[in-house]
Amino acid sequence: MNLRAEKVLKFLESKFLYVHLNWVEETLHQIDVSLNDKQLEQQIIQYLLNSDIKKSLTFQSCLPADIFDKHNQVLPGPYCLQIIHVQDIGISIFNQLEYLEQFDESGTIKSYNVIWNNLSDIDDDEILDTDKPASKKFCKLLLEDSSGLCVWAIEHKPIKHIHIGINLGTKILLKNILVLRGVLILNPSNITFLGGQIFELNKNYFPSGLKNQLKSALYNMNI
């Protein structure tokens, strides 16, 4: 192991990120050798956050293999996982589809005029009715560890960064996580958002792919 790779491994381990040596060495070949240590750390973190952890992280980052048998237990962690699916089970599918109408195919919020035209067929009383209770976000996530093990997690308390438009492949770090019947219980105190994504998962996903998923779910509910 060369000195540069050794420094990178120690830096990542200090962040509770346990990375394969060969991934580090391959990634270093893509990074400018003239970067100082701080710049190198920033670059390597970015590469890691946009990687698939099944290729980059070691089994030291994995959840317990018997996670589905655990109930009412707190796992100390830390575990670095990636988000591969998000459902909002606190808002109706119909309301989620309405929410997605404000985005164009690139995922950018449409201009005011476009949104207003889309609302032109809605009765004014519906638009101005402020007495309707606000929907409460309550998300269910499918998380994946570096072994490919997938587990469900739900919000116990609202978490700012979790929403249906989140980048798939976003990396998170979990510590002191409560497990109930094999499901991870999330709250702001036990989750750290690292960011990133897996580009392949997000291709054609938001908003069109997500709309199609929701429409399919709505159709299946009505069968």
Question: Which terms would index this structure?
Answer:
OB fold (Dihydrolipoamide Acetyltransferase, E2P), 8-stranded mixed sheet, alpha+beta, 8 strands, single chain, 2 domains, 223 residues
Please explain how this structure is put together.
Helices cover 34% and strands 19% of the residues. It contains 9 helices and 8 strands. By secondary structure, it is α+β, with helices and mostly antiparallel strands. One of its GO terms (cellular component) is RecQ family helicase-topoisomerase III complex. InterPro entries: RMI1_N (IPR049363), RMI1_N_C_sf (IPR042470), RMI1_OB (IPR013894). Belongs to the RMI1 family.
Taking all Cα atoms into account, the compactness measure Rg is 21 Å
CATH fold-level topology of the largest domain:
OB fold (Dihydrolipoamide Acetyltransferase, E2P)
Determine the number of helices (DSSP H or I, runs of at least 4 residues): 9
- Mind telling me which CATH architecture of the largest domain this is? Beta Barrel
Q: Can you count the beta strands?
A: 8
Q: Characterize the overall form.
A: globular
Q: What integer is the average pLDDT? A: 87
What is the H/E string? HHHHEEHHHEEEEEEHH
- The CATH C-level name of the largest domain is Mainly Beta
Domain count: 2
The stretches of 5 or more residues where confidence is low (pLDDT under 50) are 119-135
Quick one: CATH superfamily of the largest domain?
Answer: RecQ-mediated genome instability protein Rmi1, C-terminal domain
Which secondary-structure class do the elements indicate? alpha+beta
Q: Major sheet: size, sense and barrel closure? A: 8 strands, mixed
Strand order of the largest sheet: 1-6-7-4-3-2-5-8
Helix content percent band: 25-40%
Beta-strand percentage?
15-25%
Distance between the termini: 59 Å
